[in-house]
Amino acid sequence: MRRPCYVVDAFSAEAFGGNPASVVLDGAALSPLQMQRIAAEMKHSETAFPLPAREPGSDFHLRWFTPAAEVRFCGHATLATLHVLVEEAKRIPVPESGVARVRFGCKAGVLRVELSREGGRLRALFETPPTRFRTQSVPGEALAAMNVVPEALDPRIPPHRAESEEGNLYLCVQGREALARMRPDSRALDALGRRLGVAGFVPFTLAPEQGVDAALRAFFPFYGIEEDPVTGSACGHLALLYHRFVPGPLPRRLVFRQGDEVGRPGRVEIEIRAEEGPDPVRAYVGGAATVMVRGELEVV
Description:
It is built from 6 helices and 17 strands. It is α+β, with helices and mostly antiparallel strands. It has a 17-stranded mixed beta sheet that branches.
């Protein structure tokens, strides 16, 4: 059976920027094994499958697969999916003025989305799963595996581990040059990550240029991804950590850069909002997206 399939450069308004993701529509009859095989065939860091709603109060369900495993949440493939559902498949109407609000379910829960148009461009903002942070000591061999010396760490924000499903380790370095010099040793980082109980390593630097609040990189050896070009989930969690150490009034807009070191520059727009409930500060992530491929996928 043939199914609509798209390749989208997420977090970039231009082709060959940001992070490419595959989006496969009409996959309700696909088994998890078939989804995994499709993701391995597409070879992007994530392939997204928007499916009929499963959870009460949601409009659709989302699953994401890396070439090696399913993940609980993926930011750039969510942005890619929203652009496909709105602009390509015309399955979510968005007014020329005002905001369309939808919800999608996933393994991380039911998350909210706001869709609007700004200067003719679709503006998609989606809620990222909440997390807690705790300080984390970083072994010297982990720094060596990223080609960073201890003196390059920025004392303004000590290393923290996000206590979400991924358990990413965030470490602040002093300056864009220290960030650019990093050369990840994926095999060593994978072994260290398994020992520390973290799936990803996210180094970042503060205010690298005017109009940009932070620049970051993301290494996910646990998922077989040496370096992810632009990572919406990591940016959402980093925004919460950033707000803790660089406080400001809410709601708050931030801009992060990622992907320059791998030749796929992207910009991530983030809104931090105060909300009621057990997680009073939440991050919403969005950005531009560019559809690169429109086609059909043959699944036997």
